[in-house]
Design a protein that fits this description.
351 residues; 3 domains; Rossmann fold; alpha/beta; six-stranded mixed β-sheet; 434 Repressor (Amino-terminal Domain)
Length: 351
């Protein structure tokens, strides 16, 4: 995607004034424009991929009471549905609606959320990042030039012209690791995906910091067979049930759990990076007496962890909604960090 084509660019290409271009694309009544000139302007619009900025025009007459929410993930997964629901509820309380967008690129080279903003469909944007998916630089530049209210969630980016909302992954990992250490394990095994993102790096950092303060406990880092290209297969059970690919991946996952457990003894501990993973450890060896914890849990009904961090997904959604409304109201961009402090101790396991 190149730079944002302007009205002046179209005028120069068609050999007319910017006023003439405006008259043509807006079908302004009372203007005498020859058919040849009109055709030349429309050809230049098509060739240059010009998109009229209806947003500025609309703002002069009324408020755009719709916010675009950009997320390219399966909304059957609790983590994402809970967050989007938080956004929707808070915006509806303030008289706004939600337009879901998938971060796709149209024929003119613009992402769908940039197009929706320039066309005046939305008055602000919440971008929900996943697995290092962030707004692309060209889209950021266009939105900056347009002074678009933009909130970016979970992308771990430093920004001055738009707001960011992130989880404190390292802090959350430290809290639950300290809770696990209090049970007195000789070995602590941290089980993480094969995904190199800033979020996963921060989680591992938190675990390592606590382990370094307990030199008598041996830390082991092991990886699950979950990669970026397998996430959709893993998540599929939320909406289509077990698939052949999903069954094979689950079998590999359980085998990885079994191999990890072979390195541990009764009384040792396992911390899993993702929700529900400790269930598969118990399935791999139900008789081994291990202390289990999960860094993230989204309220799944079957939980095998002794401790877990309840992710504030709904609250993150309302925080993003409040921030985009603040930007729409003219406030300056902010950076917000959500602490992960809601550690749940399971007193009765329903296995």
């Amino acid at each position: 995607m190149g730079r944002h084509t302007t009205l002046k660019d179209v005028a120069q290409a068609a050999g007319v004034t910017t006023a003439t271009v405006s008259y043509v694309i807006n079908n302004t009544p009372g203007q005498t424009i020859s058919p040849k000139t009109r055709e030349r302007v429309l050809e230049a619009v098509a060739e240059l991929g010009y998109m009229p900025n209806a947003h500025a025009r609309t703002l002069r007459s009324r408020r755009i009471s719709c916010v675009g929410v950009v997320i390219h993930k399966n909304l059957a997964v609790p983590r994402y549905s809970q967050m989007v629901y938080g956004i929707q509820e808070r915006l509806e309380q303030r008289g706004y609606s939600v337009l879901l967008l998938g971060n796709t690129v149209g024929l003119q080279g613009y992402t769908d959320y940039v197009s929706a903003y320039l066309e005046g469909q939305i008055g602000g944007i919440i971008f929900i990042g996943t697995e290092d998916q962030t707004p692309d630089p060209d889209s950021i530049r266009i939105l900056q030039n347009e002074h678009a209210p933009l909130v970016v969630f979970n992308c771990k980016q430093d920004a001055d012209t738009y707001s960011t909302v992130d989880y404190d992954y390292a802090g959350g990992a430290r809290l639950i690791a300290e809770r696990v250490m209090s049970t007195g394990p000789k070995r602590l095994l941290y089980f993480e995906p094969q995904i190199d993102t800033e979020q996963e790096r921060q989680r591992e950092q938190g675990i390592r910091e606590v382990a370094s303060a307990h030199p008598d406990v041996e830390l082991k880092i092991r990886q699950a067979p979950i990669t970026k290209d397998r996430i959709e297969i893993w998540d599929a059970h939320h909406f289509v049930g077990d698939t052949e690919e999903g069954i094979r991946l689950t079998e590999r996952f359980i085998e990885a759990c079994r191999q990890a457990l072979d390195e541990l003894e009764d009384g040792d501990a396992v911390i899993a990076s993702w929700a529900t993973w400790t269930h598969y450890f118990r399935k791999a060896d139900p008789d081994k007496k291990i202390v289990y914890a999960e860094l993230a849990n989204n309220g799944e009904s079957w939980m095998a962890a002794n401790f877990y961090t309840r992710m504030p997904n709904y609250g993150a959604g309302t925080t993003c909604a409040d921030e985009v409304l603040s930007l729409i109201g003219g406030s300056t961009p902010q950076s917000r960090l959500i602490k992960l402090t809601n550690i749940v101790t399971v007193t009765r396991l329903d296995l």
